[in-house]
Structures are given as structure tokens and as C-alpha cells.
């Protein structure tokens, strides 16, 4: 059983930055891909970014490429999402997710590929 806990959300002005963290319990973290998703009011859960088990491969939604960076620290069982040049369109609840698997090659980019989810952290960007 894995538990994920996000932190770092908040209110920021357009053009600002935030760094989200997701702390994971359990040994599976070190061999599992991690993802970030977001959900705005009235919308479905949207893929944001993913990172493989070793941190050597990443992928991003087109809407955040060049602005967001996903990284991980396997010694701390934590994955991060650095968000720069935020816009009001980035306002959402952000979730981290874990895809249990032994060093999978392909990066998971859909919610159904993930096994565990955090509770989410609110990010609000004011104009």
C-alpha cells in the first residue's frame, strides 16, 4: 500500500512560480513512474507531467512545456513539480500519482495507468 501527500500549493499572481512536492511512503516509489495531473472546476482530470523511475525520462502536456519541470529525489521518496510563468489557466487542484511497476520503459500519461493518488493541492493563479 502506498500513500502520497502533495504540498506546496497556494495563491500566486500571474507570472509567478510555485513548487509542488509529493511525498510517497513505501519502497515501490524508487522503481515506479510518477505523474502530475490537474483538475479545474467543471473539467476532467488533465495530464500535466510524468517522470520515469530513475528520473532520466520526462514528458509534459503541451500546455505546460517550457514552463513546468518535473523531477524526483529517490532518496527522499519525493517528486516535485516546478511551475514557472503561471497563468490563470493553470488554476486547478493538482494531484500526484504513482504507477506501480518495476522500472517500466514507457511513460504513463493517462489516469487509468496510475495505481495510487494523492489528495491534491489547490493552485490558484490570479490575474
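Q: What amino acid sequence fits the structure above?
A:
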Amino acid at each position: 500500500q502506498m500513500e502520497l501527500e502533495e504540498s506546496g500549493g497556494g495563491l500566486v499572481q500571474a507570472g509567478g512560480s510555485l513548487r509542488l512536492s509529493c511525498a510517497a511512503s513505501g519502497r515501490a516509489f524508487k522503481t515506479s513512474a510518477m505523474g502530475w495531473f490537474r483538475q479545474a472546476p467543471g473539467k476532467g482530470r488533465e495530464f500535466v507531467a510524468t517522470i520515469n523511475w530513475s528520473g532520466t525520462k520526462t514528458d509534459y502536456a503541451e500546455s505546460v512545456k517550457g514552463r513546468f519541470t518535473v523531477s524526483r529525489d529517490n532518496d527522499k521518496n519525493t517528486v516535485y513539480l516546478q511551475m514557472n510563468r503561471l497563468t490563470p489557466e493553470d488554476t486547478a487542484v493538482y494531484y500526484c500519482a504513482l504507477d506501480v511497476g518495476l522500472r517500466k520503459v514507457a511513460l504513463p500519461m493517462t489516469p487509468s495507468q496510475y495505481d495510487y493518488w494523492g489528495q491534491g493541492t489547490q493552485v490558484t493563479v490570479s490575474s
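Q: And what stands out in the fold?
A: The CA atoms of residues 81 and 117 lie 15 Å apart.
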